[in-house]
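Example 3.2
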Amino acid sequence: MIQIISRAQAKDLLIDAQRLNVANPFGQGPQAVVKAISHLGYVQIDTINVIERCHHHILYTRIPKYKLADLHQAQTTDKSVFEYWTHALAYVPTADYRFFMHDMKRRENDPGTWFESVDPKDMKKVFSTIKREGAISIRDINDDVLVEKNHAWASKKPSKRALQLGFHTGKLTISERVGMLKKYELADRHFDWKEKPRAAAPEDVCNYMIDRALRSQALANVESICHLEKAQRKTMVKKFLAERLKNNELIEVALKDQKKNVFYARSEVLEQKIKPSELVHILSPFDPLAIQRKRLEFFFNYNHRFEAYIPKNKRVFGYFALPVLVDNEIKAVIDLKTDREKQELLIQQWTWVGKHKSVATKQRIEDELNRFEKFQLASVK
């Protein structure tokens, strides 16, 4: 039997699962970084730096006293998080490493067309260099015979794609970032495994993905669990969801006004007392709450547009627009830019969503913008 809940209750559940209804859910310091990433499952990485990069922004949203050095320590010194591919490049808890080893092996067996141009000699060269010299970045390789770029994201140095292939197959790991510059190290040497993890079986990977989604989304379905995943994995996840439902581990949930869209949840999640959010968050467009656009629109009646790659005359919200979560509603979208030279956070455009415009709401958002500005400028002082 499908349990029917209100849209307001559904949003409260989602915001609670994302830990956006509590002022400081994870504490502070490198340990808070690990706790946040472990709870969310992963934190997406992106290079755009109109404001502070999204991985730092996402962590700051849940860790008020977050410092960029905290993530660096977690990755490079504590080695409690690592980088790998989820639906995009992301930080993932090292405790979950074994759930990614199946994909590493799959990419070793079938690297795909992007890596078909990698010469085994280049692979041997980068591995020998790293074994001899320790972690390196692409800037440390100066003896490549340069080639023409065949893609905007490609490099004239063949070694770059060799390093990327080593990373995707799990032989190499990104041991450190200096800004956005990646340093590659032998995975075994970086993690210094006392006992190397054993790859999780495909069915265990699917159950891991289900548990990750239930923890961080509260209400999950195949699409939200398998965001941008291949059809084969979606089929397996669907099978395990059906099994859990049959075993009464999960229940089916729908909204009063959208009964055809069924989600899965743990029954105890619906029984708990949720603290309604009284907070304001300037969200990254890559935030876990916002990254699945159709899901965001379904629950919040708000269709976010990422317009950085859209011609200026076709933009609605602005180049790098950020949704603003006030209590349990998206009430505004603000296009921001950090002027690091003048030490200012600039509002390029402010767009109200729905009928939420009010003096009181604007003041709350401006108060949060003042706090957000301090975070934006902290790394350039």
